[in-house]
Amino acid sequence: MPRSSPSAAGQPREAFTGQVGFILAAIGSAVGLGNIWRFPGVAYENGGGAFLIPYIVALLTAGIPILFLDYAIGHRFRGAAPTALRRLGGARAGRLLEGLGWFQVAIAFVIGLYYTVVIAWALSYFVFSFDIRWGDDPAGFFQGEYLRVSDPGLSLDVVPGVLVPLALVWIAVIVVLGLGVAKGIQRANVIFLPLLLVGFLALVIRALLLDGAAEGLNALFTPDFAALADPAVWIAAYSQIFFSLSIAFGIMITYSSYRKRRANLTAPGLVVAFANSSFEILAGIGVFATLGFFAVQQGVAVGDLEGLTGVGLSFVTFPAIVAEMPGGPIFGVLFFGSLVMAGFTSLLSVLQVVSAAFQEKFGVGPRRAAATIGGVSAVLSILLFSTTTGLIALDTVDHYVNNIGIVASAILTTVLVILVLRRGAELRGHLTAVSTIPVGRWWTVLVGGLAPLVLTVMLVTRIVALLTEGYDVYPFLYLGIVGWGSLGLIVVGAIVLTSLRWRRSPDDLAPWPAPADLPTRAEARR
User: What membrane topology does the UniProt entry give (predicted)?
Assistant: First the structure.
């Protein structure tokens, strides 16, 4: 029989109140800014409708299997990434895997610093939408009047228009994290996810009624099957799935550790994965229907428009559209309100990775951890990203951390856990023993074979490109300091945190079901 599992701090472990609460929190983590501003443009640039083929293949062969891996590690070993991975490694490789866990925590910490700023921008533009404050020059307003963008470098010139909403977002985050898993994170997702779905559906319906919507949808979904012969298209598909599911940097390990011992894992995992992909397709419909309207108004083809992804899409192209369309203020409120809600629920999961790890290592409670982690993060976030150089720093750090840091973390996790330590059978047995949908040997093959192979190709390709071509138009010296430097600080932080002593030993957990019981349970479920 399962027994209650204390946290590494010695207190009863927090838990989601049930399966629905966990699913909503996991979907809230996965559905973020990238679903709205990244997927539509990536799909359009990589074969349109034909892109859905490699996208679905990537989802089934890498996204869901690695998601299950995170679930199995967190749920079986009952901890945040450093705790769970250390317990998995045992006497043989516990310290090494704990270091990997802290590497994931450090990645989450850095992402939290700049992700919060984008939410602050969206919050500002939510307010700006009521009177179309950007006027007829959204690009000039965004980079000039609002952000006051300067040349690459390090500036301490704080922009008040960014500082105020950024501080508000940090206060909200600290409060929610301090309330704990059930009363804070779960409750926030229960409130925000339905609001996000209703608001975004209203936005999509309005977009579909615009003149030119059909042209936009044709541009997005018209398949270019010749693109399927391009390896870059397949890499783009795996990259999109990988980044959109919140896998391989501690989030799903941490969230699954808050599930009760007898908790279904695989069925909720499928719900989360397909809900995330469904929202991405919905976002593609809404975004490109709107872009079709804009293209007709400008008298150009959709492909001739600029700013089809990322910051440019959200804060330049969409404001320009809002300024021209009937009922623009309402559309703007819906769009930027959706960005705020999607970003906020994802941000909570990112920072919970850091908070949970510190709670377990240093024996502190949720409130103290939230106040400490949140306070330090807020100060650094304001100093680094609310200044006149904040946009460039954000763009650079995000590119390096996502394309190098997270991918490297995934490769290390799959290789060490599945290939080196040979724990695939145990984790597969755990998934099957506690879930309604059994996991076959195909899972071990995908997680230990195909996934690290594809991810290694992605990583090597990106490293070569960054070393030879740089990134954007930024000077190589700047990229070395801010881009590669941020990765260096993540590695150093992981090493330092691993070397510190635990307040209470994390090594006294007896995993349930016991290893000897797993094969029998697994076979019984087939």
Answer: Multi-pass membrane protein
